[in-house]
């Protein structure tokens, strides 16, 4: 591997996690990069995202999703201006795919804003009709063999579950029925694991093929997706995307395929990436052992002071 290959940089747009209005709203109001992006989002949608965000009580409402997108793009703007960021590859795990699509030029930012709003409405309609009691639970420190036993118990009782994410060693996301959640959390605890948070509605589950179909047939055809100007690494299997068709497939895969962060890390390492900028409100990916042990990580986003974390 040459010296130039060893110093490649990746930009990562994080997935969404629970967040409060106070921190998000403060960033949207005070940060100059966020204010600019917010104005663009308001123009694209024809309403005040901030006003709807303030009135929202849902962690994953349309306005909350748009605000997260705005803050992620604003953080990338800051990373470029203040850090001189010129990345070689782009990654957008989970919801971060939307910001990634805008950043690499596959869709203009205004269109990504409208796409995000339309997909949020599509998801709301789907989960009002189907899998109304489905949740996705995130947990850590759980050995694979123990988790396999726990899930086998669910299967033996005829209960549905799907893997929704492989984040790190012992770190998973599993979708299941809400009525099974308390028992599942207890079993995780007994196995030595630690429950983090639960997402409603559920995400990234193979059972949601119908949601993928709706997005593919009713929404994405409205948008003219272009070849990315920067290679994008898919969060499902670490494939490097360089065409519009592959990027469109990636956007659809997020509905019914689990995240696999270890495969993303393997691809980035194989491409010679040694430094990673995580741009946006991230409470997860920069903390993962697999991230910290393989890259010099710089976090840029709400609640952060653009500080680097040393590679271990």
Automatic annotation (TrEMBL):
Reactions catalysed, as given in the entry: holo-[ACP] + malonyl-CoA = malonyl-[ACP] + CoA
Domain of life where this protein originates: Bacteria
Organismal lineage: Bacteria, Bacillati, Actinomycetota, Actinomycetes, Kitasatosporales
Keywords from the UniProt entry: Acyltransferase, Transferase
Entry-linked InterPro entries: Ac_transferase_dom_sf (IPR001227), Acyl_Trfase/lysoPLipase (IPR016035), Mal-CoA-ACP_Trans/PKS_FabD (IPR050858), VinK-like_small (IPR049416)
Name under which the protein is recorded: [acyl-carrier-protein] S-malonyltransferase
UniProt-listed Enzyme Commission number(s): 2.3.1.39
Entry's Gene Ontology cellular component terms: cytosol
Sequence ranges assigned to domain Malonyl-CoA-[acyl-carrier-protein] transacylase small in this UniProt record: 139-199
Pfam families: VinK_C (PF21124)
Enzyme class: transferase
One of the GO BP terms on file: fatty acid biosynthetic process
